[in-house]
Design goal:
Layout (H helix, E strand, L loop, with lengths): L3 E9 L6 H10 L5 E6 L8 E6 L17 H11 L2 H10 L5 E6 L5 H14 L15 H10 L5 E4 L5 H14 L5 E8 L3 H9 L20 E2 L1 E8 L8 E10 L12 H14 L8 E3 L6 H14 L5 E3 L2 H4 L6 H16 L36 E8 L3 E9 L1
Parallel strand pairs: 3-7, 4-5, 4-6, 10-11, 10-12
Antiparallel strand pairs: 1-8, 1-9, 2-3, 6-8, 9-13, 12-13
Helix pairs in contact: 1-11, 2-5, 6-11, 8-9
């Protein structure tokens, strides 16, 4: 098996507009962009408010005009700008048709579709700038290919909350199979009424900041963001962050609920360990899926207790980023990337678990990160993403 190195990363989410500000947001546990979101009061099924993690409009480059780009693609290109110089260097070493793009998304341009339908109901016509292709699931990959002027394989994966976790696996396969020399992979999602009201109709959203694993939890905060990586076998400099192992499974237990015993999650986590050639004591930190919903946390805590060591530090970072759905796997891998990178130049620090410390007696005990149990080393980070339909992904990142 060849080593897949993550040689560059761009990120934007509620934590910050780039790597530096996201690192600072992790250090300070910022939650300033988790704010009230108005549900569409015209809808028959729902009205009211919830909490959502929104990217401030001023973080998006005004050159990416709203009439030309969907909000989803504007968020995507904000992350893409951060690695543009790396992609240009990449094109000097590899042909344009040998550089692929694999993204995860679940919303694509649905926001603009909502707005177009509302405009048509008022005026009788769709807005002139709207085209159906804006909301096709593959549109973000095509947008990025045009932006970087690449002609290799470019496609999106949409398996709900595991989408961008699976993008890493597809990227590795493209390189290992010889189809590509390098792949830009990651994920992007944006807030829209469809997803927020959809989760609200399932009684899964919270009116306060999400409180994972607590007996008082009451649901999800939907978020938006993007994170992109360059995947290749090349290595730069002395510090290298690489994709050490991947694991995926499909338990297909229920359309919207995971297997209650965590069978699919266990398979994915163990497969990632086996792929990386690691034992369970070598994972220093697990970024949990940790959505703040009962079904997820009952099963995820069981999976953690069965697969990982009791010493593995765990936390959910969704109280900082919201649940970014199709982008969650990439953004949370991005958080692991930042933690591993920063640990090479300073004492490791993992963001503490932000919750009310009211343990749910129904779930297995988990070793949550706090300010008092920070690690002495940080070599391997695992990140879990579990989706509707039982689509499960675990990634392991390491630094060398």
């Amino acid at each position: 098996m060849i080593q897949i190195n993550l040689t560059a990363m761009g990120i934007v989410c509620a934590l910050g507009a780039d790597k530096e500000s996201c690192s600072e947001g992790l250090r300070t546990n910022t939650q300033q962009n988790l704010q009230t979101f108005e549900l569409n009061k015209k809808a028959d099924s729902d009205s009211g408010t919830t909490i959502a993690a929104k990217i401030p409009d001023q973080w998006l480059n005004p050159l990416f005009d709203e009439k030309k780009y969907t909000r989803n693609n504007r968020i995507l290109l904000t992350a893409a700008e951060q690695i543009k110089i790396n992609v240009e260097e990449l094109k000097t070493r590899y042909p344009k048709d040998r550089i692929g793009i694999v993204l995860g998304t679940s919303t694509s341009g649905i926001l603009e579709g909502e707005q177009a339908v509302e405009a048509r109901s008022l005026s009788g016509d769709f807005p002139s700038e709207f085209h159906y292709s804006m909301q096709e699931m593959g549109d973000p990959a095509h947008c990025l290919a045009n932006y970087f002027e690449l002609s290799g394989p470019a496609f999106c994966i949409s398996t709900a909350c595991s989408s961008s976790g699976k993008a890493f696996i597809s990227a590795r396969r493209l390189i290992e199979s010889g189809f590509c020399d390098a792949v830009i992979c990651g994920g992007v999602d944006s807030l829209c009424q469809l997803t927020v009201q959809g989760f609200s109709s399932l009684e899964a959203t919270s009116s306060t900041i999400t409180n994972p694993f607590s007996k008082n939890r009451d649901g999800i905060n939907i978020g938006e963001g993007a994170c992109l990586f360059i995947c290749e076998t090349h290595q730069y400099g002395d510090v290298c962050i690489s994709l050490a192992g991947v694991g995926e499974s499909s338990d297909a237990h229920h359309i919207s609920a995971p297997h209650p015993e965590g069978e699919g999650a266990i398979l994915a986590m163990q497969a990632a360990l086996d792929d990386a050639g690691l034992n369970n004591t070598q994972i220093d930190y697990l970024n949990c899926h940790g959505t703040g919903t009962r079904h997820n946390e009952l099963m995820e805590s069981k999976a953690i207790s069965k697969v990982l060591s009791n010493d593995t530090l765990c936390s959910s970072t969704k109280p900082l980023t919201g649940h970014t759905l199709g982008a969650a796997g990439a953004i949370e891998a991005g958080i692991c990337y930042l933690l591993l990178s920063n640990a090479k130049t300073a004492k490791p620090r993992i963001p503490p678990m932000l919750w009310d410390h009211e343990h749910d007696p129904e779930i297995e005990s988990v070793n949550f990160v706090s300010d008092s149990n920070q690690p002495n080393k940080l070599n391997y980070c695992m990140s879990n993403s579990f989706a509707f339909g039982g689509s499960n992904v675990s990634l392991i990142l390491t630094s060398t």
